[in-house]
Specification:
By secondary structure, this protein is mainly α. It folds into two domains: 28 residues; 49 residues, no CATH class. 40% of the residues lie in helices and 0% in strands. The model has no long low-confidence stretch (mean pLDDT 86).
Length: 100
Amino acid sequence: MYCNNCGTEIKEDGIYCSKCGTSAYENKDPNVSEKNWLATFLLCFFLGTLGIHSFYAGKTSIGVIQLLTAGGCGIWTLIDLIMIICQTYKDEQGKYIKMP
C-alpha cells in the first residue's frame, strides 16, 4: 500500500505514513483541488467581474482578462458561477474545486 499524499510505501500493518504522517486510510481524490469551494463561490459571487476568483484558483492570465473586460461584461462571471455551483470549475492544475 502507498501513501495517497506523498507516494511512500506503507507497511501492511501501518496506520500512518512514516514520511509525511498521513493516515493510511485517508482517501483523497487526486482530481480534487485543495482550494476552498465556499471561498471560490463567494469571490465569484461578489467580485466575479474583477476576476478575483480566477486569481484565487491560480488562473492568473484568465483573471487579468476578466479584470480588463469586467468579467466578459458579466457573462463570463455568470458561466464561472454556474460551474462553481455544479462543482465543475477547475484550478490551475486542472483539479476540480469541490465541496468537502
